[in-house]
Amino acid sequence: MLSLYIHIPFCIKKCLYCGFYSTTYSVSDADQYLSGLQIEAAGNKHDFLKTVFSTIYFGGGTPTVLHPDQLTRLIRIIRNEFRTAADAEFTVESNPNTATSEKLDLLLEQGVNRLSLGTQSFSDAILATLGRIHSAQEAADAFSRARRAGFNNIGVDLIYGIPGQTMQLWEESLDTVMGLKPEHVSAYSLSLDEGSQFYCMAESRKLALPDDEIVAQMYERAVAKLRGAGYDQYELSNFSLPGFDCRHNMNYWERGEYLGLGPGAWSFISGRRYANIADNREYSHRLSEGWKAVDIEEIVTPESAARETLLLGLRTTKGLDLDRFERDFGRDHRLQIELNAGPLRDAGLLRAAGGRLWLTERGTLLSDEVLKRLSL
Ligand code: SF4
Questions:
Q1: For residue 364, what pLDDT is reported?
Q2: Distance, CA of 246 to CA of 360 (rounded, Å)
Q3: 8 Cβ inside 6 Å of ligand 1
Q4: Predicted pLDDT of residue 376
Q5: What stretch of H or E contains 362?
Q6: Count of alpha carbons within 13 Å of 369, Cβ hemisphere only?
Q7: Could you report the per-residue pLDDT of 219-256, keeping only the tens digit for each?
Q8: How many other C-beta atoms can be found within 10 angstroms of the C-beta atom of residue 120?
Q9: How far is the centre of ligand 1, averaged over its atoms, from the C-alpha of 233 (Å)?
Q10: Angle between helix 136-149 and 101-109 (nearest 10)
């Protein structure tokens, strides 16, 4: 399966925890970006002539910050240059206050069939701490607008482990989400990404994070509540109603191939992983001069491929398929994993059955440590 990812590197304002590449939106910068993207897409067309993409994902940044005409232009570029399956999953990320009725209608008309709404929390105090530009009510309103517009596959994102976030506030956010009944929920613990303001604040000890025990309890509470409400936990941090797993993300976790376009976008094709320069002006300039936008490139060795397969496979509730792992990476690697897994199974952190290996519930809570001890 091959996926197509488009990075739209614009936001209204940078959130304090965000380490993704994005810059402040302006009409002219976005026009310049689209010109670059047109060249990059056309330049890739030949290599992917026979490829039918199974999923398309517009991420960022905030794709819906684009003007409606720019969104239309972007979708036209993709439709003109690439072939997509008739049943392709087509996701667009959105921020509550850029998800206007006009843009939602436009996205649906253009074949977008999945909306990922960045809500993060339903507490105004916590949203302010994160530096988000919307209120809890505005997030709920955006969700209702998307439903009314006709989206029947909506994912919402939540973050826990935020400074000042109590268990009560976290539970209130979870309850609000369950009241909205999205098809998909992602619940991530706050990560301190390099390049974010939170990262700098943590480095200078100006960020008061909740302690690990509370964060672990928040995770357990999320799992219990979401499972109780009928969501299947198909990955450590991702939950869906039956039939609504995110196919695009599943492809990442299964180490499927993907083509990424736009500044800062990563691709993984034929064992080669590469990323475009994370600078919109430089990206557009290079492409307009007839140069490539690729800035970083790495060949994935069989050892690192085996390690990635292990780490990603264990994150999903399907677990790691040991027979397939052996076919791909050899018997020695399988034996090494089984050897490393022994003490973790004895400690109740891993479970093995039917040629597969899973994290147990306890193992899920200590997943970083388990993956480190299991790693090749
Ligand atoms: S978290 Fe999302 S909305 Fe906030 S700055 Fe990052 S990409 Fe933009």
A1: 82
A2: 22
A3: no
A4: 65
A5: helix 361-365
A6: 10
A7: 999 999 999 999 999 999 999 999 999 999 999 999 99
A8: 26
A9: 25
A10: 40
Residue 319, preceding bond cis, omega within 30 degrees? no
- Residue closest to 6 by CA, chosen among 74, 100, 86, 101: 74
Asked if residues 293 and 40 have their Cβ atoms less than 8 Å apart, the reply is yes
% of the chain at pLDDT higher than 70: 100
Rg (CA), the chain: 21
Q: Is 62 in the pocket of ligand 1 (CB under 6 A)?
A: yes
Rounded CA-CA distance 231/224 in Å is: 10
Q: Which amino acid appears at position 196 of this protein?
A: S
Q: Cα 70 to the chain's mean position, in Å?
A: 23
Each residue of 175-227: pLDDT tens digit?
Answer: 999 999 999 999 999 999 999 999 999 999 999 999 999 999 999 999 999 99
Tell me, using a 6 A CB cutoff, whether residue 61 lines ligand 1. Answer: yes
Residue 316 DSSP symbol: B
CA atoms within 13 A on the CB side of 223: 18
Q: What is the pLDDT of residues 277-317, one digit of tens each?
A: 999 999 999 999 999 999 999 989 998 999 899 989 988 98
How far away, in angstroms, is 120 Cα from ligand 1 center? 11
User: Residue 249 Cα, ligand 1 centroid: separation in angstroms?
Assistant: 19
Q: Beta 320-321 vs 350-353: how paired, if at all?
A: unpaired
